[in-house]
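Board notes, transcribed. Complex of a protein with zinc ion.
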Amino acid sequence: METSLKDRLFNLIPPAMIAVVLSFWAFGPRSLVEHPWALTVTSPLIVIAILLLEAVHERHAGWRMNRREFLTDLYYSVLSATVIAWLTQKLSEEPLVALKASLGLTTAWASHLPWLAQVAMVIFLIEFGQYWMHRLMHNWTPFWLTHAPHHHITQLNAAKGAVGNPIELFLISLSVVALFDFDKTAIFAALNTMGVISVFAHANVRADPPIWYSFFFTTIRHHSLHHSTDYESTRCNYGNSLILLDRIFGTYREGEGILVGQDDRKRLTIREQTMFPFAPMIEKFKVWRAAKQPRGALAEASPADDLDRDAAGAKAAA
Ligand SMILES: [Zn+2]
Ligand SMILES: [Zn+2]
């Protein structure tokens, strides 16, 4: 099939956007890049730009954005930027900085590295942690229960990377970057670069970047396969932004998914996504309570729907 000029242009947008992000943080006016709100503005701008691209050159009609999906995505984007970001700061980054100070660790060498090397190192540190956290989530039931809601999404869109159980969103945000004295603009450039990659990796945009990009960075092809409905296809391509890690650790798989979701493709509400990890416990409690009730009352306590889903979730995690 011949590639149209529009396709070829769109295939180059992800690398071009990374170039824009890096140039902004490297050469942008100091008053802008050092502004305390800079990252708070640039991160959603990236998502908005890619959402607009979905409207211009969509990948699958079945993933087309609608009001319900948009509002859910918006809820999680705000949750991540506020509550989750605050929790990460208080429970992870500040304790790490305190630990570093109490141990007398100094990492001034980090800020003396070339700027681009600092960006690359921040990306590698964050992605290395996320890769193994993601693999753990797919291999150990307590962690899977936090990650399964992200796999229950039934379509992919630009902000879907932020959709998931809040415990998962917190776990995936953990990193050791706070232990190093990197230049702040290098950290922000790294965060925005990973933002561009992972937002495109969830977006309904017909953009398939060239191999010199997709060898290193996760694309929608890699990640849509990971979101497939069949269990085997989800056991690969764990890299959030650095698909290179899957190539190194033997979990890379070529392919692409169109039908995405978990098991019976049941779309979970925000409430169901939030309660998902606790569902088995709630179920056990209901069974225990029903067992204590007199026989006549048993018929009323029939948690069939929840049981079905829990069984399916446990199977996927096995
Ligand atoms: Zn996953
Ligand atoms: Zn995903």
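Confidence is low (pLDDT under 50) at residues 301-318. The chain has two domains: 5-275, 278-317.
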